[in-house]
Design a protein that fits this description.
Blueprint (H helix, E strand, L loop, with lengths): L16 H12 L21 H10 L4 H13 L2
């Protein structure tokens, strides 16, 4: 992976391919676009994924919380 130009600066030895997939998905996302992925939970706690969590947090906003509020409003008439 080190030899692939697109991943220079990202490769971290034991980096999971999922990390590359998520970063590429964010890179290809249009401004204002939405990204939905189902992933194993492990990367949220993996020590070698610190860079990934930081990068995703800086480039994405989490719509899940807004969606939960909208569902609650519909169900409870709020």
């Amino acid at each position: 992976m080190r030899a692939i130009p697109a991943w220079r600066g990202i490769y971290r030895g034991k980096t999971d391919y999922l990390y590359y997939f998520l970063l590429l998905a964010v890179e290809k996302l249009k401004p204002g676009g939405r990204l939905c992925v189902i992933t194993p939970a492990g990367w949220m706690n993996a020590g070698n994924a610190d860079f990934l969590r930081e990068r995703l947090a800086s480039e994405l906003t989490l719509a899940e919380q807004r969606e939960r509020r909208r569902v609650a409003e519909v169900l409870h008439g709020d």
